[in-house]
Request: fold
Amino acid sequence: MTDAASHTGAFAQGLRVQSRVVGALIMREIITRYGRHNIGFMWIFVEPMMFTLGVVSLYLLFNHHPPGVSLVPFTIIGYSTVLLWRNTISRCGNAIEPNRSLLHHRHVRVIDLFIARLILEVAGTSIAFLILATLMVFTGLMPPPDDILEMIVAWALLGWFAMCMGLLIGSLAVVSDAVERVWHVCAYLFLPVSGAFYMVDWLPRALQPWALLIPSVNCVELLRDGYFGAQVHAHYDIAYVAVVNILLMLAALLTLKRVATTVEGA
Amino acid sequence: MIRLEHVVKRYHTRHGTHPVLNGVSLQLNRGDKLGILGRNGSGKSTLIRIISGAELPTDGRVIRQMSVSWPLAFGGSFQGSLTGMDNLRFICRVYGADFKSALPFVQEFSELGKFLREPVKTYSSGMSARLAFAISMAIEFDCFLIDEVIAVGDTRFHDKCRQELFEKRRDRALIVVSHEAHNIREHCTRACVLRDGLLQEYPDVDSAYESYNTPEIPGSANRAA
Reply:
């Protein structure tokens, strides 16, 4: 066997082991988080769906209409993006402690603990958004979207951002418990500026470039552009978000590499 | 074959770096039965975790050319909120073993009965040890790593362990770490002493034990007792 071939073989073998481990960890997370009672694993997406529906109901109740767009799709899109980044990032803060003993198994690595939670959270919030939007379109509460592909790109960009942030926050939380606590405060304060509840076009012109420095704002704008089409005037920069994501991913992986060796099974 | 090449392990503590292993080299061939004697805090568990691959050495290399179990210890290796059954499922998935064919053996060996469906954190240390041993026997390894686990449990448990591990799997390699000599004398053909972060091999178990038991500093024998 040539050297290259043996490397490819080792890589494929490693990939097989890692997908087995991540699969096992996903099942393990589902069991302790949702159990086998009542609807079991379906809570993964039912829970975020209930959240979004609750927020939409509150908006309807207070008749809080956004300018120029209909309330139901605007709120569903906005709140779904909040759940995507907030749930994904916060689930990483305490990913290691409950799973520490599983690190006794050689194949289980710290990064796998994060990957399992990231997949679960992104999948849960995505399925919730998909089901909710489909239901609303079929019942006529929401008109069908203008450009689904654009929406998928926007959702993927935001999911990517959330995963990088989750990995970074999770790795830093290994160094200090304070990181997780401070993150919760930051997430709360970040909520109003995240782009979920406003559009950049509504802001004073002087503020707009500042808002667009926030990656999630660009993603939500793109998502709304995909949904509402010509009804809204969206501002975004896909390349900017991609660059920020790449830098965040690099920072997250480097931090993880540094801290992972200090984590032991116990 | 398992080979350790000049393995160094240092931990970072509040008081600076704490060296645990200062260059340990070792070779274990198929079927070898190695006992490692060391006092509390000598780094036995660290060494066995490094051999298993659960921890990475600070420096040096570990080469594994046979399948190696996780370190079988009193507790550990299980997720506390999961039931014994779900832990078995998890471990079968991780090691690519078949859950359905492993289950009857684990039920029989662990004698946990209905407690197999209770969270592992509610188990006593004896129950955890039984589960740990049962699950590790349900998955086939070329080399088993044992961290004092046979020190717990009653005579019946010992007899069952002996039968499964030392008789049925007598062709497998074994590494036992202990601070007591009798476990090692009984099951091992090679013996080492871990002291001051260095591993010293002796020609036989008795001479290792003798050296292990000789106090270097007056009073240290009492401290170990």
Q: What stands out?
A: The beta strands of chain B are 2-13, 16-28, 33-37, 59-64, 68-72, 143-147, 173-178, 190-195, 198-202. The helical segments of chain B are 44-52, 84-95, 99-110, 125-138, 155-168, 181-187, 205-213, 220-224. The longest strand of chain B covers residues 16-28. The first helix of chain B runs from residue 44 to 52.
